[in-house]
Design brief:
three-stranded parallel sheet; single chain; 8% strand; mainly alpha; Rossmann fold; 244 residues; 6 strands
Length: 244
């Protein structure tokens, strides 16, 4: 399963059976949704505190909320970004029960709704789950050009692609701050495409089942097997038992 059409073609050319299926189609839309609450931030950036995420491009934004995952270099990055970006607000430091601790999805959703738009600023990565979480929460996206497929669900009305320049990013954020877009319209347009892509996925899986002599329809089982990002955690010995 590949995040872009180009990636799919490369795998197929190498003789590897592949389908185009952007992984953001599996983000749970029930976790991220519009709320009727006050806007507190010009923008929000849900991204690990690593240089390749290019937080420095936020330097000219008035108030920007950072959501992140704690790691080995978190404190060092926190200090550096805090010193270089006057409007930085670190949500994991402010709203977690532990210093720089984990935020639950409902906390993330609230922070997204407190921002006028979401940011996607890396030059290359995978499809970036937060890029669609922004849209499902009903906020538009400011992005830089990037490899990896995160723009698949972006619509021109709800996204702005700008060069990796601090002024350009800040101006795009200001545009959406003043635009007054309808959050439900953003979410509805996004879900329309998500459901269409999931239908493609269902048909593909059903084709695999039929090839194995199964007459099941994956749609009938989806509610019981679906989890956010199709990502589940289990003990190593249990995982290994599935491989035998």
């Amino acid at each position: 399963m590949c995040n872009t059409v180009e990636e799919t073609a490369r795998f197929r050319n190498a003789g590897i059976p592949s389908i185009f299926m952007n992984h953001n189609v599996f983000v749970d839309e029930a976790l991220y949704r519009p709320l009727t609450i006050e806007k507190k931030f010009d923008a929000v950036y849900n991204a690990t505190l690593q240089p390749w995420k290019r937080h420095d491009l936020c330097a000219k934004i008035g108030q920007v909320a950072f959501i992140y995952h704690s790691g080995p270099n978190t404190l060092e990055a926190y200090k550096m970004i805090g010193e270089s970006i006057p409007g930085a607000r670190f949500m994991n430091a402010e709203r977690s029960t532990e210093p720089h601790g984990h935020l639950m999805p409902e906390q993330v959703n609230q922070i997204l709704n407190e921002a006028h738009c979401g940011l996607c600023l890396s030059a290359a990565e995978g499809a970036m789950h937060s890029s669609i979480e922004y849209l499902l929460a009903g906020i538009p996206v400011v992005t830089t050009p990037a490899l990896g497929g995160r723009d698949f669900f972006f619509e021109p009305e709800f996204s702005s692609t700008v060069e990796p320049d601090r002024t350009a990013v800040a101006e795009a954020v200001e545009h959406f701050k003043l635009a007054g877009l309808d959050p439900l319209q953003i979410r509805t347009a996004t879900l329309r495409r998500v459901y269409s892509e999931r239908e493609r996925f269902f048909n593909f899986i059903n084709g695999l089942l039929r090839a194995e002599g199964e007459r099941r329809d994956i749609r009938d089982e989806w509610e019981s097997i679906f989890c956010n990002k199709l990502l589940g955690w289990e003990p190593l010995d249990v995982f290994l038992s599935h491989l035998h």
